């Protein structure tokens, strides 16, 4: 039997996305989970223990075709919650990165995300009901030396959601919440080739369970945004008063290849 509530969670095979999907299933949502890897099938098996309908989709959300495949898999169901969480990291110096690699970060983190929002939000606004959680980052407030494209892509998301929230403010039954975590203990740093960095090796990263709980709670309260964790809240406050050159140098110490050695 189908639940009367339906959620989409992207980037849901592991990490924050998987934990968000867990919370959705526990709260009685049927959940469409999406990732660009076969592991999404195993995630679906885990999530079915909560008794709702779980639909896994393997799709590349850096492409319009991938987002369209996700939307087609809804079979026209009303979407009550969208957790736009899919994202891609990329470490190392910008001049050493391939065009293909940095373009994929931009296409996943920005193009695919805002295309999905543009497809899902009109129906929510038309009926004045729906909740959206978008995973931004504290990184969006910091010039990201040795993570320049990633941080800049999150800056786009952090500010884009601020603008979009204002544009749809008359539809007060629709909320857009931006989740802004700091470093989280997920596969992100491995996939971004950052395991030899200070931040990649740090044991003070947040637990994805805690980050997902923060985001899910803020979304359900209709809050505009949330810095997840007290360290991140403090960092968010400091970025507003610290010169960009200082922030960039601080980030270099965290993210420069080899900074985690010795």
From TrEMBL:
Q: Which PROSITE patterns match?
A: ADH_SHORT (PS00061)
SUPFAM superfamilies per the UniProt record, alphabetical: NAD(P)-binding Rossmann-fold domains
**Superkingdom to which the source organism belongs:** Bacteria
Q: Does the keyword Oxidoreductase apply?
A: yes
Coiled-coil parts of chain: none
Entry-linked Pfam families? adh_short
- The regions listed as transmembrane in this protein's record are none
Keyword Oxidoreductase part of the UniProt annotation: yes
* Keyword line: Oxidoreductase
Q: What family is this?
A: Belongs to the short-chain dehydrogenases/reductases (SDR) family.
Q: What is this protein called?
A: SDR family NAD(P)-dependent oxidoreductase
